Each structure stands twice: as C-alpha cells, then as structure tokens.
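User: We ran a pulldown and think these components assemble together. Before we commit to crystallization trials, I'd like a predicted model of the whole complex to look at. Sequences follow.
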Amino acid sequence: MSDRELRVSKIRNGTVIDHVSGGQALNVLSILGIDGSEGLGVSVVMNVPSDRLGLKDVVKVEDRELSQSEVDVISLIAPEATINIIREFDVVEKNRVDRPETVVGLLSCPNRNCITNANEPVETKFDVVDDGVRCTYCGTIIREELAAHIAPE
Amino acid sequence: MRQDHLITATQLSRADIEAVLDRAAEIDADPGAVADRYREAVLALCFFEPSTRTKMSFETAIKRLGGSTTDMGTVESSSVKKGESLADTVRVVEGYADALVLRHPSEGAAKMAAEFVDVPVINAGDGAGQHPSQTLLDLYTIRENVGLDDLSIGIMGDLKYGRTVHSLAEALTNFDVRQHFISPESLKLPRSVRFDLHNSGAQLREHTDLEEVLPELDVLYVTRIQRERFPDETEYEQIAGEYQIDADTLELADDDLAVMHPLPRVDEIDPAVDSLSQATYFEQAHNGVPVRMALLDVLLSEGEL
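Assistant: Here's a predicted model for the assembly, 458 residues in total across the polymer chains.
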C-alpha cells in the first residue's frame, strides 16, 4: 500500500486484528469491551479490499496485548481473523483465532423467558455449536446476527 | 458421568432410564418393601407455577418412602413476592431438605438452581423447556402397555411450548422409535429440540393431519394447546379445537393403541374416549407415584442418575 493509499499508520506497541470479515470491526471492539473510554489509541479500517475475504476490516489497539482467550471469542463473528502482537513496530507474534467451546457473559439470550433474563445472579453462558451458539440454560440457538446479541456492558 | 440432578431428558441414557423404570416396576409390585426406607428424608416442593399431578405425586411418593415434605406454598405467600431471587430461595431451602423439586416459569431455571445448591434438584417443569420426571412416567406407561422398542408414536398438539413433548421426544431417541409429530404449523417443534433430535439421529416425521398417520400408531400422545403460552388470545382461539380426538377419530386406530395425555386436558380428548380400552391417561397419571418413588430412591440413595 503506497503512502497515498495508507489509511492508518503503523503502531509501536499493541495488537493488530487483521482479516476481520468486512463490516464487523465495531462488533470486534464490542466483544473486546473497548469503547474509547479506556484512553487506548484505537484505529479502525473498514471494508478495504482483501484477496482472501473480498472486503475486510482491520482493528489496531495501541498499548494493549490481547490474550488468546479474548480473541478466541472474535472467531464467532470473524473466523478468518489473524492476531498480530506488535512490539517496537515489529510483529512478534502472529496467531489465528480458535473457536472457543463456550462463551461466558458476552452474549445475551434472545429468549426473553430464559432464566438469564430474569434478574438472577447468573452470567449468560453459550456453548459453541457447529454453526452458531446455544444457551446452556434454555437451549436457544443463535445462528444469525450473533453480534446483535452482544450484551451491553 | 455422575449426575446429581434431573434437569433435562437429554442427560438420560437408555441405561439411566431403564434403571428408574425397573426400580419403579419393583416398587409397583411391592410398595411395602420401601415404606420406611427414607424415614428421615424431607423433600422440598418449590412450585412457582400451579400444579396438581406433579406436586401431589411427588408428595405421595416421598410419603410412601417414609419421608415428608416441606412446601414453599404459592408465590403469593412466599418471599418471592418480596422480590427474592430464585438463586437465594433455593440456597435457603436446601438447608431444610434432602432434595428439591422445582417448577418455575423461566426456561433454564432448574439448571441454574442446580448450580447454587448441593442437594439433588429435580426439574418439575421450566417454562416451555423440559419436564423430565413426567417423561419417566410416560416411558414407564408406554413400556407397560406396548413396549419401548419397534414403536410408532404420534405426539400431537402444542409441540412448540409443550415441555412434556420436548422431554419425551428427546428421551425416545434412546429407543427404536419412529416419532410422528402432529401439530398446526405455528406450533411445530422448536429449533432447539430439533437440534437435539437430529444430533441423536432420531427418526421423525411431521404432519398437520392426524388421520394420515393414526392407523400405524402404537401410541398417541395428546397434549393440551396451552392458553397461557400464547401472547395473543385470538391466536389461541383460532388454533384450539383443531386437534381434538373423540370416539369417531379412534375408529381409524389400532385396537391396541394407547392414548396418552400428560393432563390436565381441556377439550383435546372427548370424555367418551375415557371408557374405551385405548384410554391410558389416568393409568399414566397414577404411574407418577411409583416412578417418582423410584426416581427419589435413585437420587437419594446413590446421589446420581
């Protein structure tokens, strides 16, 4: 990418999440609980051409190295994502995301009659199944629009 | 795997089911043999929704085992009315009892309750979710009448919200059973139950008309189309009455057909059917006692299913 096309500069330290499915970058930030109030430098590029994905998003978070378990959850909406840990402008670690077995506390159950929506002291828990996630408590399956069920902080 | 609780039918293997049914048959044959077995045992009854059969048969079951009950009473008369959470209620009640029977309007309530207590929790109905102890007595009734293998069963009515249907269908996947589901389009099985049935490799077919499948059935399991599950009264009125059976309907059926119903019925089964040899639903309701005695015996003695 030439300087004329360069949209976001390199970061010194932090994490670059690349190959996010086009249009999902803001949902990735939601999953990570990043809303700007943390004071971290955050760059978001959306819907840029990608040989592999057609269109992709890129998320750069400065001065924070994301753990593998944090980014595994991203696999639910961005299965092709790659995670680059940056130190002093160099990529020191590059990982693909892995689908987790369960997702705890992140999603809200769309079944309004689920016990997790009844003001009980319990976190939501979803088992990851072939093509979606399933509420451990009531069995409701979410296949489409997963990001729409991300629980508000 | 050790299981302290009975939460869903999917947790039950064929061996688990047969262990309870065999025990129920022994108890049925000689109830006196277990009359004093659990003299000190107290069973907590936490019913956040109305119940006649389930609550009374659990109460009778523990009494016939020599034990007693402690009853939360109605929601209106308990601390739930003051805003107490279910998690707090069950943590308090576990201190009073050796096992806890829970009925609650929210799906997943029993699963959550079991995470907060150490005594066995029996799910006696969680919203439109599951009702696995009903399933055990349903299976016992089927086994006593027509056997549990090479069986053709029709399950009719409210398949979407009917928790007895969900548990029964999932438990039947342990046996060689052809399952026919008969309902209006709007009350077909929910996605979560289909998911479990497909995962278990169940043989299932769906129908909107009972007559096309009735002649080949060994069991017809009728359920109430539940008014309280409908957000809209008009929708309820429109559908109610479409899936009723009477003596004329059964002329197409095999003489040995077992007509079952978890009860209460409203008008799904005409009272004239009661006197026919196929009517099995009162026997089914009575089986609640020996089967729940057997379930309590398994959970209280071994602490696992």
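The mean pLDDT of chain B is 93. That may be worth checking against your pulldown data before setting up trials.

User: Thanks, that helps.
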